Chromosomal replication initiator DnaA
Amino acid sequence: MALALAAERGTRERPFIAAQANAQARSWLARPRWPAERLWLWGNAGVGKTHLMHAWARAQENLGRKVQWLQAGSLTLDSLGQICVAGVPWEGEHAPLMAPRLDIVIDNIETLADEAALLHLLNHVQHLNAGVAPRAHRLLLAARLPPARQVFTLPDLASRLRAIPAVEVQEPDDRLRSSLLLSLLAARQLVVAPTVIEWLERHLPRTAQALITSVDRLDALALARGVPVTRALAAEGLADLLTAVEEPAVADEEGKTT
């Protein structure tokens, strides 16, 4: 019986795959200081922004810092104008924002619904950092687009975000695509013949999201039918994604194959 359960990507457990596509982002994250202690990662879905931020968060925790992780869509202001995350107050004497040596990771900026809340958070963190060396709080933000290409209603928020260094996590190169595909298959415990894997690498779109979608579909289809992942199964289940798929040979009326 196949249950509709979301697959756990395990980004906190699996090692991040270092490659040229994410080299610039890794270089920035390795710096002990950022301009105004803020950094913006951007890139298409599936390129590894969240995974990379989890790896960075683990490194900060190992250094004794505290990391607060939130989704931009959960950020709001209450009736008193206080910052809340998923309805939980973040301001006050013992609230999360008052923790020393604090790093705040804000993922999926495109889901932000309360722009005033993010603006208030930026201003509050700037106030807390004033006169503190090294600054107590750092902000790491992630989105699919850089700040200059995001649309914000509040001019003050737009100007503050566009002043943040923005670093792109690029689509994977061939070596990274191969490693990512193998990692995704292993996470689903899918045993796939090397010839099928090579065929998928040749015919799938050259994006990380295409690999993720493909493995999700193959896992569901193989489980539903109780069969292994073959090239025929992949060609059927991924027909709308595959490019330049070879047509099977067919016999004409004289028995010749074409």
